[in-house]
Design brief:
Radius of gyration of chain B: 23 Å
Shape of chain A: globular
Number of strands of chain A: 0
Structural class of chain B: mainly alpha
Number of domains of chain B: 1
Helix content of chain A: over 70%
Chains: A mainly alpha (about 300), B mainly alpha (about 290), C alpha+beta (about 450)
CATH architecture of chain B: Orthogonal Bundle
Number of helices of chain B: 14
Radius of gyration of chain A: 23 Å
Strand content of chain A: under 5%
Order of helices and strands of chain A: HHHHHHHHHHHHHHH
Oligomer: heterotrimer
Distance between the termini of chain A: 18 Å
CATH superfamily of chain B: MetI-like
Largest interface: A-B, 111 and 107 residues
Distance between the termini of chain B: 22 Å
Structural class of chain A: mainly alpha
Shape of chain B: globular
CATH architecture of the domain at 87-293 in chain A: Orthogonal Bundle
């Protein structure tokens, strides 16, 4: 995979993958830095850890004030959540929305990004500005009319409507990200293929796409992540049928025990895919986030 | 590339964006000039909604709070993000693990993270932070009733989930610092503070600008954290503009949709104003 | 690249498989699957129909919701109910009634909102359906007073399922320890609280739901009612906040503050329940529907230490208690697409005799003669409380007046404005609200 090297190189650099092994020296600075990092990691993880603790406590001590720090761990809350609520359905809804968004976003975004990467320079600057402007829009300015539209068309409270809304909201960013990846592929390849008789579409399908593996993965992961994280759009566009997990958790904030603890269990369960993103897909997230910020 | 090909590749995406982004935006502007409810055609009332919004003290409070919060969070993100990036940059084998741990806060949905955060601070529900603070200082901070403690919690939460992003971007920027310039400065006897302030930071100014841009953009539109952390937002003056829009234009079934849409437009203008310097810089960079 | 794709692919497959396996058992013990089964013979619809039910979760409402969902989901009807907290129900009720079509076909309502929705024609009048099915579902056994509470302008807008009244829950062990009896007046309550503070080490013994954006106005209304004054006067169409009792009520609330958690203005009833679970509160006064949770050992180690009594009077010479009577019932929105006759049969079966019996001890059913003093630990208290509550105010402006005075009361209690200023503002806001309602 030497094409799209730029993105890969940036990501690898950020992750420190290619540096030669260094000898460890425990200087004063490194102790200080190490301590700072450990403290920061602990602070950043504390909400997650505390909630995980709370949901493994028996219900009567889960939210006890003053808090207890030793207890008999139990998985009852997770079992209760799974069996006594429709949590499974909410997970399915969230997954369906995420998958549909990702597929649609790529299907729509790839051709557009390819076209824009082969277009004159001022167009790409314009695209950058447009992407920025749309990213900066307050969601309500776009989602409230979508709510009105969805209700009148009869698509309100469907996973498809939510997925479509998310595709549209994230299109500018998706296209911009993919365009950067396309731009790394030299146009000489296009020209060579077209001289061999390929049309533009065939160039895209047969030459570009196979080389866009990392780009597609990165953009796909981001769209999936955005769909997974979404609360605002989901709460406006769903009600009973297409309810997603973050919306469910929000409806439980005013409940009493034991449902409140089950909401915590839902939150913890939702952290597991987050862990998968943070560790397994780390390289792509890093590549995507750095893509916008680093020039060359 | 031929024009026809260009348009055929771009049109599907363009249709979706125009239909689902541009048209709704137009509708919002249309609604802002009307007295309207969902499903109604609405009656034109000119700039009346804007006058109501601008003369409402609640709107003024929301703007002051949101802008203040944005500036504070951005400043913290820059400082902490930079320090963290420099620290992580020194790691080698541990880096993916530490990055993974730090990224968790960014990846978790905002609302879920805010809910977990609220349980850390809610003394009635066994929040350990309160417990520790009371133990150490004997003070009982009211994180959800008092304005400034609540602001602290909100700030902490927003910094919590934006910090990984800021750190990662600055970390990426640090990779492109020229090692020779660094060596030269060290040979010239520059101490660590000098090194960072005079050499490194100027060379990562691009990514710092990017962090400022995204942070301004995102915190001005903050919504999810307030749902979990500040249910009393309006009463204690911690209502963000988006939260205000939600309670006006949706919560009660859209009784004041026109007013909410006007506030939406005003928010766009505010964001635009605060982002003008950044957008200009980015456009200049992009055209180079 | 390819290998990591393969590992990622393998992981994804495992995840999907795990999800698939886990699906069995998902939702297998929903509350409705363990609810009482009652007769619900609704004629088959022309096509499979889903009926969405909006009802918040509480140990008193759940039995009725679950019985309805489990008993009536048959013959091509599927009833769906999603868990939701009370603020969520309030928001979704407004949203679903607002337009020409709504998501929900059956909504839980309570006496407080009936005049408002009735006068706005949002709910379907049930008088004819009531007469039609009165015999087959024995609807005439439903308390007449409670039906009246759900009636506005002669039209019945909801079928009552239960009544809720204020009950005082207190820690019997603490009371015995310091030698106290359940207080009968606010003065006695404050003295008891002081004793508990000094001798039992509970810092904030009194626990009331005073959420600044909601419940606090209910508490104020109850104090005012106990002092013998309504919020507004129906005949003269004026507000009563210029009366001395209006200011007195605010002063009474402020006098209770030293005995209550400083964050009490963020506490809705679940948070007050949590105070009792924690043992950080010793006396709580809130709706009877929240009492059953306190007696469950699963929720608190103090479950067996709670005792219940009718709430106290505000002043020694008050005729009524610090109390309110709220009737909960099922309403049918006007904008539902489902056959209203079928919907009525469903709600009627959910308040049948067997269903009402099954709701004990958590709820106080609207059906007459269901609750004796031994039905639950708080039944005796409920029977006293229900007879001595201040009268309700079923006027079309009551909900609006309450909403408008809520932030003013909160400001007064939080000390941001004086009680003198507060009653002036309340009078202004209420007068405007009465004028706006037609």
């Amino acid at each position: 995979m030497t094409i799209s090297a730029t993105q890969d190189v940036v990501a690898r650099k950020v992750l420190g993958a290619d540096e030669p092994p260094r000898r460890r020296r425990f200087t004063g600075t490194s102790v200080l830095v190490g301590g700072f990092l450990i403290l920061t990691c602990l602070a950043m993880l504390s909400p997650i850890v505390w909630t995980a603790m709370s949901v493994t406590k028996p219900t009567d001590v889960a939210f006890l004030n003053p808090p207890v720090f030793t207890w008999q761990p139990t998985l009852d809350t997770f079992v209760d959540l799974w069996q006594t609520t429709n949590f499974y359905q909410y997970v399915i809804n969230t997954l369906v929305v995420a998958v549909i968004s990702t597929v649609l976003a790529l299907v729509l975004g790839l051709p557009a990004a390819y076209a824009l990467s082969r277009a004159p320079g001022w167009i790409s600057t314009l695209l950058l500005v447009v992407a920025l402007i749309f990213r900066a829009l307050p969601r309500f300015a776009v989602v409230l009319p979508m709510y009105d539209l969805a209700r009148s068309v009869g698509l309100y409270d469907t996973t498809f409507a939510l997925a479509l809304a998310l595709v549209a909201i994230n299109q500018p960013f998706t296209i911009w990200l993919l365009r950067n990846f396309f731009a790394d592929i030299p146009t000489t390849l296009d020209e060579a293929a077209m001289m061999d008789g390929c049309s533009r579409f065939q160039v895209l399908r047969r030459v570009m796409l196979p080389l866009m593996g990392p780009g597609i993965l990165t953009a796909g992961i981001f769209v999936f992540l955005f769909a997974f994280q979404e609360y605002l759009t989901a709460t406006i566009l769903t009600d009973v049928n297409a309810r997603t997990v973050p919306v469910f958790i929000a409806t439980q904030l005013g409940q009493t025990l034991p449902m409140l603890q089950q909401a915590g269990a839902a939150a913890v369960l939702f952290t597991i895919p987050a862990i998968a993103f943070a560790f397994i897909a780390q390289k792509y997230i890093v590549a995507g986030l750095s893509a916008g910020s680093v020039k060359g | 590339m031929k024009k026809r090909e260009f348009w055929m590749l771009v049109t599907p995406s363009l249709v979706v964006m125009v239909g689902l982004l541009a048209v709704p935006l137009y509708r919002t502007i249309e609604w802002s000039l009307q007295n309207v409810n969902y499903g109604d055609p609405g009656t034109f009332i000119g700039l009346s909604n804007y006058t109501t919004a601008l003369t409402d003290p609640r709107f003024g409070r929301a703007v002051v709070f949101t802008v203040g919060l944005t500036l504070v969070v951005t400043a913290i993100l820059l400082v902490l993000g930079y320090l963290l990036a420099v620290a992580v940059n020194r790691l080698h084998r541990m880096r993916p693990i530490v990055l993974g741990l730090l990224l968790l806060a960014y990846v978790i949905p905002g609302l879920v993270g805010a809910t977990m955060f609220s349980w850390l601070f809610d003394s009635n529900f066994g929040g350990p932070v309160n417990y520790l603070i009371a133990h150490v200082t004997g003070q009982d901070l009211l994180w959800f009733t008092d304005t400034w403690p609540n602001r602290v919690v909100l700030t902490l939460n927003i910094v919590w989930f934006l910090l990984p992003f800021a750190m990662l971007v600055i970390l990426a920027g640090l990779q492109s610092v020229n090692p020779e310039v660094l060596e030269a400065a060290k040979i010239d006897g520059a101490g660590p503070f000098r090194l960072h302030w005079n050499v490194i930071i100027p060379s990562v100014s691009g990514v710092i600008g990017f962090v400022i841009l995204i942070s301004l953009m995102d915190v001005l539109r903050v919504f999810d954290p307030l749902v979990a952390l500040s249910p009393q937002a309006a009463a204690i003056g911690n209502e963000s503009i988006m939260f205000y829009i939600y309670s006006v234009a949706f919560k009660d079934g859209g009784q004041q949709l026109g007013l909410g849409s006007a506030i939406n437009v005003l928010l766009i203008i505010i964001i635009g104003i605060m982002l003008i310097p950044s957008i200009r810089a980015t456009a200049r960079e992009g055209s180079r | 690249m390819r290998t990591s794709l393969r590992t990622n692919g393998a992981l994804a497959l495992t995840a999907v498989a795990a999800l698939g396996l886990a699906a069995c058992g998902a939702g297998s013990k929903t509350a409705s699957s363990t609810a009482a089964q009652v007769t619900c013979d609704v004629a088959k619809p022309s096509k499979p129909t889903t009926v969405n039910v909006l009802a918040y979760n509480s140990s008193a409402i759940d039995p009725f919701t679950n019985t309805m969902v489990s008993s009536c989901s048959k013959n091509d009807y599927t009833l769906k109910h999603e868990p939701i907290d009370f603020p969520g129900q309030v928001q979704k009720t407004t949203a679903t009634l607002a337009g020409a079509s709504g998501t929900y076909d059956i909504v839980e309502t309570y006496g407080f909102v009936i005049p408002q929705y009735g006068s706005q024609n949002k709910l379907a009048p049930l008088n004819d359906l009531f007469t039609k099915y009165a015999d087959s579902y024995k609807l005439n056994d439903i308390s007449k007073d409670m039906r009246a509470a759900m009636t506005y302008d002669g039209k019945l807008y909801a079928l009552p399922m239960q009544a809720q009244m204020y009950i005082m829950a207190y820690r019997k062990d603490v009371f015995d320890q310091v030698g106290l009896q359940p207080p009968k007046t606010f003065e006695e309550m404050k003295t008891a609280a002081k004793t508990i503070q000094e001798k039992a080490g509970i810092k904030y013994p009194i626990a009331l739901p005073w959420l600044a954006t909601g419940d606090i106005v209910t508490s104020y209304d109850c104090i005012l009612g106990s002092l013998g004054v309504n919020l507004t006067n129906f005949d003269t169409k004026t507000a009563n906040f210029d009366k001395p009792q209006a200011k007195q009520a605010l002063d009474e609330m402020i006098a209770l503050k030293p005995f209550m958690d400083p964050q009490v203005t963020t506490f809705a009833q679940p948070a007050v329940q949590q105070q009792m679970y924690n043992g950080t509160g010793a006396i709580a006064i809130m709706f009877s529907g929240r009492m059953n949770d306190l007696t469950l050992e699963k929720n608190s180690k103090y479950a067996k230490s709670f005792a219940f009594a009718a709430p106290p009077k505000v002043a020694a010479d008050s005729a009524k208690l610090y109390d309110t009577l709220s009737v909960d019932g099922w309403s049918i929105p006007n904008n539902t697409a489902v056959d209203k006759d079928a919907l009525f049969q469903m709600i009627a079966s959910s308040v049948s005799e067997e269903a009402s019996k099954a709701s004990l001890p958590a709820a106080y059913p609207a059906r007459s003669g269901m609750v004796s003093d031994s039905s639950s630990p708080y039944a005796a208290a409920a029977n006293v409380s229900i007879t001595s509550a201040p009268p309700a105010e079923p006027y079309p402006w009551t909900a609006d007046v309450s909403n408008k005075i809520t932030p003013i009361i909160a400001n007064a209690v939080l000390g941001k404005i004086t009680t003198d200023e507060a009653v002036v503002q309340m009078q202004q806001a209420a007068t405007a609200a009465i004028a706006a309602a037609k």
